[in-house]
Amino acid sequence: MGSLRIGIVGCGVVGTGTVRLLIENREILRKKTGIDFELVKVADLDWNREREFEVPKELRTRNWEEVVDFSDVVVELVGGRDFAKKLIMNSLESGKHVVTANKHLLALEGEEIFLKAQEKGLRVGFEASVGGGIPVIKALREGLVSNRIRTIYGILNGTTNYILTRMFEENLSFDRALAEAKEKGYAEADPTLDIDGWDAAHKINILASLAFGKYFPFEKVKVEGIRDLDRLDVELGKELGYTLKLLAIAKRFDGEVEIRVHPTFIHSEEALAKVSGVYNAVMIEGDFVGNTMYYGKGAGSLPTASAVVSDIVDIGRAVASGNGGEITPIDWESEPVTVRENFYSRYYLRFSVPDRPGVLASISRVLADFNISIAAVLQKEMVCEIAGVKNEPVVPLVILTHKAYERDIQKALSRIEDLPVVAGKPVVIRVEEEAE
Amino acid sequence: MGSLRIGIVGCGVVGTGTVRLLIENREILRKKTGIDFELVKVADLDWNREREFEVPKELRTRNWEEVVDFSDVVVELVGGRDFAKKLIMNSLESGKHVVTANKHLLALEGEEIFLKAQEKGLRVGFEASVGGGIPVIKALREGLVSNRIRTIYGILNGTTNYILTRMFEENLSFDRALAEAKEKGYAEADPTLDIDGWDAAHKINILASLAFGKYFPFEKVKVEGIRDLDRLDVELGKELGYTLKLLAIAKRFDGEVEIRVHPTFIHSEEALAKVSGVYNAVMIEGDFVGNTMYYGKGAGSLPTASAVVSDIVDIGRAVASGNGGEITPIDWESEPVTVRENFYSRYYLRFSVPDRPGVLASISRVLADFNISIAAVLQKEMVCEIAGVKNEPVVPLVILTHKAYERDIQKALSRIEDLPVVAGKPVVIRVEEEAE
Question: Which of A32, A147, A296 sits opposite B328 (nearest CB)?
């Protein structure tokens, strides 16, 4: 029977869960794999803080280099960029496999890390970086390997999905729903990375790389968060049969891809629309398999530990079979692929207008000038909460468009914004259909 | 670059899809894996029938032994038991890896096949045997490897799920919905394997083996189909907030497991309840990961081909890294595990009774005698469609129980059946709650 020595650097929430899993399930892992996964060292700077599981004293250290020295696999769970990168590069240089949950680092500097691993014939496992315990990285790289992946739609951030679920179900305002998420421990004190879409953007960038076989510069990912959402749009969308989600989207066209994160209306009957609260789900469409979906807890100590250890097991199995290297380089695509910024989508547009004749005509004229075709119009007999033009009350006018180019929409909107009958900035929310 | 020669025996719907995938996506497979997957032979007895994709003439043969001779991996897609087994055993004896979609054979004779593969240091891939293109076998064996699996709930048969969806949504009778499924090509001319639950039972037996690490005799699986379902129960369940699904269930207790397939009421708000039409979904609960769900097309030419080829790629990667054997024996559990037949569940019971005082009292007395506790009662002011006692009209009386033992329920029901106030056989449908 083989054995593998595991060291962990960073004993926060996920680190503690991983320690617990490796100790409590060591025997079952041995039975399932024939390999003994032995936790040898855990580094953290603070051994006094409260943890949900007590790390055995003899495993504790404050010295990360000790972890690298004594392990076959180094698990990086410190998060952040600079030190995490130093730790990973140092581990690879020392001939150690690496497992990490650090989506932030991988989305920004994955290429350098994976190239180093390849050069050294080592593995970098990162299942825990996307979707918590859901084995979605494995599904993309292995289970669906025989497919050309066309689209990925993901609800990849539990904090924002919780907030949007509460806004949708209880008609709460964004601020109210965020406060609730904080109370329940679903949002951090500084929730910027989550609510402004960065966390989901890191994750979709990683999935897009795997699906399309290229490293895509993170700056090219379009990111829009949920901070400015008005519950009025959640409500109007609901009436039209749509549910509002923060979707992370990656699509492949011939030589181009789209990678974007933004609030998105999807049909309320679609599977992704039913994913509520802190759950995550990823819909992946391949040319042969069609649509498949992966669903589970996208964060949390124990689910994330489950993914970390699945990577450790993969490494253990590869080492036991005499081959430690990556199953496949990530940038397998030899054709050029660029990120398309001018994407093509349906749109929900909401204007605040006075309830007078001619308003719809002037707005729709501008849309027509930009070749934007209208699919549906909804004008409500309700007075908007925002200030009116010249103190005349305004009502919401919603236009759903057929597919149009983002750039045309933006140009049309800036023209419409200047119309005297339109009060304030129009609201733009993209609309996606599952199968097009 | 390595290469792997693939041969297929059986060129029906799935075989044709697999040929097409291996030809159309050969280049992308090579890019993703660095391995050339070369389709060398396809055997079938009838090369004149209409196929959705034309198999190149030079690949065709009528001789299965030629396929075994010329291939590194033999793909068995003939189905059925006797010849399929002979083909697989012969391939393994000849030192060839095997990929199969044959759930029927694996559920009944998997042990012999896997032991032979282990003895020979070869792989038998069977991702396509459960859930079509959904990589659920891989999720269980690899993605969730670090977990003790507690429960698996699956909608594993698309034909029955289509029928139940139509009964639920349109209040169709079983016969009407089956006729519709046949028209649409979702049900075969002889739908017995599907509608009587055998297909789902084969699949859950395979998943239970993987999850709990033992081969379980197929005769021990409790199987009940949907043929006798009355739409009245679908409707009454709906009123109570439940959706009726043919669930395949596997649960682990200490030294025991339950493996069963039967019509099951689940809360209409649960994720599985929303899986409609011919889609499949599997919910897997692990001790660390919690609930995860896998969803997609559970059958069909191209999705199943996707799974077949993912197995071929796994074999190619293993061979390229110098190790061809199984990642882990299937029967990894060294503790004894037996199949528990007297399971423990909630129940929906429907009695046809005259609308008279005292009826509920006599039925509930019998239930109390068997320690079965009542959670809810629903008596409808409607006249049943079935014949009444002594020509007195009967009404449906529904009792939802708390958890009880199957054996006690059966005994209580046979006593209740003998009560003079009860007309006909009571209807029994089990009720499952996702998280208990």
Answer: A32
ipTM: 0.94
Question: Which CATH code of 3.30.1490.190, 3.40.50.980, 3.40.250.10, 3.30.360.10 fits the domain covering A136-297?
Answer: 3.30.360.10
Question: How far apart are the CA of A319 and the nearest CA of chain B, in angstroms?
Answer: 10
CATH code for the part of the protein at B2-133+301-320? 3.40.50.720
Domain A2-133+301-320 and domain A344-432, same fold? Reply is no
Q: Residue B152 pLDDT > 50, yes or no?
A: yes
Residues of chain A neighbouring B316 (CB-CB closer than 8 A): none
Q: Does A121 touch chain B (CB under 8 A)?
A: no
Mutate: best of A1, A19, A146, partner B, most B CBs <10 A? A146
pLDDT in tens, A352-409: 998 888 899 999 999 999 999 999 999 877 665 554 445 667 899 999 999 999 999 9
What pLDDT band is residue A436 in, cutting at 50, 70 and 90?
very low
Domain ranges of chain B: 2-133+301-320, 136-297, 344-432
Q: Render pLDDT for B112-145 as a digit per residue (tens, 0 to 9).
A: 999 999 999 999 999 999 999 999 999 999 999 9
Chain A residues close to B266, C-beta within 8 Å: none
Contact B294 A294 (CB under 8 A): yes
Q: Does residue B342 register a pLDDT over 60? A: yes
Q: Which of A162, A317, A150 is nearest to A250 (CA)?
A: A150
Q: Is B135 in the A-facing interface, judged by CB distances under 8 Å?
A: yes
Q: Do A309 and B213 touch (CB under 8 A)?
A: no
pTM of the model: 0.95
